[in-house]
Design goal:
By secondary structure, the chain is mostly beta strands. It has two domains: about 10-455, 7 Propeller (Methylamine Dehydrogenase, Chain H); about 480-755, Tachylectin-2, Chain A, CATH 2.115.10. It has seven helices and 53 strands. The longest helix is centred in the middle third of the chain and has 8 residues, at about 345-350.
């Protein structure tokens, strides 16, 4: 589909928007939504904090599909990895409180019981449970649990392996997709693989579960004629229309949707979701964000589905083994026609907000999986989740045929469950990825809509950095901002750089006169006219033009200072002294800064970790550009008692002629993060004797953990950039690691006037 371009001014209409995503020219010129329409992050709750007593912190525990009590105060989520469901109190949405878990094995429903979905009816939790022993002998049940006591009230046999559940608006019926999923190891995962799946209806005539009954609805080949493999429908996700009369069922591997009348329990229609070609996207895993790629006409293969109104459904086109189109679509159920498709919109959103996942470019990109629709404050919204780029895109769908992008919300890794709570103007997003070995933990993100929540939300809001369009009309690709520098001639701009997360080294110019800051220019670093591959961990713009870069090597010998001209062409490379390089491991240069005095230009270098045999003392070096001489000083790092942790330097900047500022940080994130701090050191009036290391004394300037926690999101590990802008303001930025073992969120901190941050430095 065509994409309208926006001006940079339109991109930054509010602090909460990332624009440039209109599907039509008319959309491109609409003003941003008022604060009353936008969502504000209130809390991020790691579900491992709610683990059972005696369970190790590192044990996998996840939040997948979720439901909420009818009073909107208790959040219930499935945990398939642990075979349990969790309960979280959100009476105060800004401070979720764990209320324990329920192990399905303790209910006597089987040692291998896996919860796949959950719903709430009155005082009961309906837990959909997969009890299958094999793909060829699928089984499952519906466990009815008392919400208050967590006691098992009743089980109902579902007759197969279940997936999702949906309730009618009046909660008199439930619909459950019985997938009877395929075995990916059989016949290359292709269909058919019987037994066939079907739809299970549960009639809920009253509050007493003893009166509840089931009705199986076969999804026969005759009813699904024309789909990919109608004899094996593989139902995935269910949604009930606003009138409570019709269930829409996605048949993901069949690339279709079936419609079932609840009263009669019959299939009333089915349609293919078709194929779509997408252009203007990155399709190669090569370390380059190249938006000139395309995919040919590809089956949508929808996962989640939701009704926008009585005649339109929206699908999240995740894809399976044959498809996936990186977006979402709207269909008219009366004809099966596509009335709107996102095309490359979400891919471009990911690029613009620094959430592009290069590792997934050759596969299904942002991989849209979750989708929910609800009316909050009289406004109809669609919430669309990107499993691989860790965000939820919010759309105004009052006009079902013309969705309007409103906002992007950052989540933690693998958002799957998307749960609006209209009665409380809340949105809950459960993210399923959990890997304690890399400090990526599953969590629940809580967002509140409107002005009341704006007043209580974090002061640091996402996105804090977006990119403008390049000359070709594509968002400038960016991520992994591991360094920061003032522009010595421009009050409006800073410079940052990408690190080894990408194969080509680039310098990025940030306009910080806007909120969010806008990346409005990129400069490719070249060597002999060819793009260079550097791990840039330090950058400092020179007053005379060009840049000094700090490139970290895989080994000590690979570390170097690199000087470029203003166009990024490398003019000079300076290796570290041999004795210093020999003492470095894989942690080398992590910051550079330039100072000038009557003796000429000097480049300061921060080495992240101590040299071999130097204890807890990291080195700061000064390179004299005129003479080529080095002087070295020892910086006393703090200590940590956390197993596997260490402290190190990650940036250096010049405060005044005899004062340097550094970032000292640990390697922890989330609730465990403890050390993310700015310290100053005074430069000695005399250099240490050649071959010796001088001693520095540090002074704490600011603990930045509270600033990072003020996002109300996941506390980021890699605080790696710090500078004083030409405007006199202090800025810091986090490195999102290109989303590798990280949430991908970039936080640009605006710390205030340097004279206050650094207590009126001497001139």
């Amino acid at each position: 589909m065509p994409y309208a371009r926006r001006t940079v001014a339109a991109l930054t209409c509010t602090a909460l928007l990332c624009a440039g995503l209109g599907a039509t020219a008319a959309q491109a010129h609409r003003p941003g939504p008022p604060t009353s329409e936008t969502f504000h992050r209130l809390a991020t709750y790691p579900v491992y904090l709610n683990r059972p007593a005696g369970t190790a912190v590192a044990d996998p525990t996840v939040a997948e599909i979720s439901a909420v009590s009818e009073d909107g105060r208790t959040f219930i989520h499935t945990d398939a990895l642990a075979g349990r469901i969790g309960f979280v109190d959100i009476t105060n949405p800004a401070k979720p409180q764990g209320r324990g878990t329920l192990d399905l094995a303790d209910l006597g429903v089987g040692a291998q019981a896996v919860p796949t979905s959950v719903a709430v009816v009155g005082s009961h939790v309906l837990v959909v449970v997969d009890t299958s022993e094999s793909f060829t002998n699928p089984s499952g049940l519906l466990a009815v649990v008392d919400l208050a006591t967590h006691a098992l009230v009743r089980t109902l046999d579902l007759g197969g392996q279940p997936d999702s559940i949906a309730l009618t608006p009046d909660k008199s019926h439930a619909a459950i997709a019985i997938e009877n999923q395929r075995d990916e190891e059989v016949n290359d995962g292709d269909l058919p693989q019987l037994p066939a799946g079907f739809l299970q209806l549960v009639d809920l005539p009253g509050t007493d579960p003893a009166t509840w009954t089931t009705r199986a609805v076969p999804l026969t080949a005759e009813a699904l004629a024309g789909l990919d493999t109608p004899q094996d429908p593989e139902p995935e996700y269910v949604a009930v229309d606003p009138t409570g009369s019709t269930v829409a069922v996605t048949l993901q591997e069949n690339n279709g949707v079936a419609l079932v009348d609840i009263a009669s329990g019959t299939v009333t229609g089915a349609f293919s979701t078709g194929s779509v070609a997408v252009t203007g996207i990155d399709t190669a895993k090569d370390g380059v964000i190249d938006q000139t790629g395309s995919i040919p006409a590809t089956p949508r293969e929808p996962d989640a589905i939701a009704w926008l109104d009585a005649t339109h459904v929206a699908t999240a086109n995740e894809g399976d083994w044959k498809g996936g189109t990186r977006g979402w679509s709207v269909f008219d159920v009366t004809t099966g026609a596509v009335v709107w498709d996102a095309g490359a919109e979400l891919e471009r959103l990911a690029v613009r907000t620094g959430l592009h996942n290069e590792d997934r470019a050759a596969k299904k990109g942002v991989e849209v999986e979750g989708l929910a629709v609800a009316t909050l404050g009289g406004q109809r919204y669609a919430f669309v989740g990107s499993e691989r780029s860790n965000f939820v895109a919010v759309y105004d769908v009052d006009d079902a045929a013309r969705p309007r992008f409103v906002q992007v919300l950052a989540t933690t890794n693998g958002p799957e469950g998307i749960l609006p709570v209209p009665s409380r103007d809340l949105l809950l997003v459960s993210s399923e990825t959990d890997d304690a070995s890399v400090l990526v933990r599953s969590s629940v993100s809580v967002f509140g809509r409107g002005k009341a929540f704006a007043r209580t939300a974090g002061t640091q809001r996402f996105p804090s950095v977006v990119s403008a369009d390049d000359a070709a009309g594509n968002p400038i690709g960016w991520g992994a901002l591991g360094a920061l520098s003032a522009d010595p001639t421009d009050r409006k701009h800073l410079w940052a750089a990408t690190d080894a997360a990408y194969s080509t080294a680039r310098l990025l110019r940030l306009d910080v006169s806007r909120t969010p800051a806008v990346i409005d220019r990129d400069v490719v670093v070249t060597q002999g006219g060819t793009p260079a591959s550097l791990d840039i961990e330090g950058v400092s713009a020179r007053r005379k033009g060009g840049f000094w870069l700090g490139s970290e090597g895989a080994t000590g010998a690979g570390n170097a200072l690199v000087r470029t001209d203003a166009r990024g062409a490398i003019q000079q490379t300076v290796q570290l002294p041999a004795d210093v390089a020999a003492g470095l491991g894989k942690w080398g240069i992590e910051g550079v800064a330039v100072s000038e005095d009557r003796k000429g230009e000097h480049v300061w270098v921060a080495l992240q970790r101590p040299l071999t045999g130097e204890g807890t003392r990291a080195r700061i070096g000064r390179y004299d550009v005129t003479t080529g001489a080095w002087a070295w000083f020892g910086y006393p790092l703090g200590t940590t008692t956390t197993p596997g942790d260490w402290l190190g330097l990650s940036e250096i900047t010049v405060v005044d002629h005899d004062t340097l500022a550094v970032i000292e940080r640990d390697k922890l994130n989330g609730p465990d993060a403890k050390v993310k701090a700015v310290y100053t050191v005074q430069v000695p009036t005399r250099d240490p004797a050649p071959g010796t290391v001088g001693t520095l004394t540090k002074t704490l300037v600011r603990d930045l953990v509270p600033d990072l926690r003020a996002t109300n999101g996941w506390t980021q590990e890699k605080l790696e950039g710090l500078t004083i802008g030409k405007d006199g303001q202090v800025y810091a930025v986090t490195d999102n690691d290109g989303l590798k073992d990280a949430t991908g969120e970039t936080v640009l901190l605006r710390l205030g006037d340097a004279s206050k941050v650094f207590k009126a430095p001497r001139r």
